[in-house]
Amino acid sequence: MHELSMANSMVEAILDTAKKNDAIKINEAVFEVGELTMLNPEQLKFMMDVLREGTIFEDAEIIINMIPVVIECESCGFKGETKMDDNMDHLMSVAKCPECDNTRVHIIQGQECNIKTIKIEREDEDA
Ligand SMILES: [Zn+2]
After folding, report:
1. What is the mean pLDDT of the chain?
2. Which CATH number fits domain 2-122: 3.30.2320.80, 3.50.30.10, 3.40.1160.10, 3.30.420.40?
3. Could you tell me the pTM of the whole model?
4. Is 74 left (phi over 0), alpha (psi -120 to 50) or beta?
5. CA dist 79 to 32, 65, 71, 76, 102, Å?
6. How many whole angstroms from 111 Cα to the centroid of ligand 1?
């Protein structure tokens, strides 16, 4: 159900942005989702498809870019991408240092769940 609540807030944010910009139709929405969120992009899309039915977001193309996790290790100073451990409980996602296995790391990137760009049509844009 993690994806459902996230999809819900993403769709709301999209519609809110569109409304503020006097959109009559949304053509495309690009999302950036960090791997640390443990969100499944396919499920996210599926949920959004359900939630956006009957809205101006309905026919838009949804693009989800997964953002790799980047950490800085407090122990050895390693800074870079790290892979999430697949054996971890998905509700307890923990990033760790690939060099020394330390979990005391600063997350630099990978927790985001943002709308990157949205393409809309406005009423007065009709040329
Ligand atoms: Zn380390």
Report:
1. 90
2. 3.30.2320.80
3. 0.82
4. alpha
5. 21, 22, 6, 9, 12
6. 19
Per DSSP, 122 falls in state E
Burial category of 125 from C-beta neighbours within 10 Å (exposed 0-12, middle 13-18, buried 19 and up) = exposed
User: Residue 76: how many CA atoms within 13 Å on its side-chain side?
Assistant: 12
What the block records as the tokens of 125 is 């844009």
Q: Dihedrals φ, ψ of 23, to 5°? A: -75, 145
> How much is the pLDDT for 89?
54
Neighbours of ion ligand 1 (CB under 5 A): 73, 75-76, 78, 97, 99-100, 102
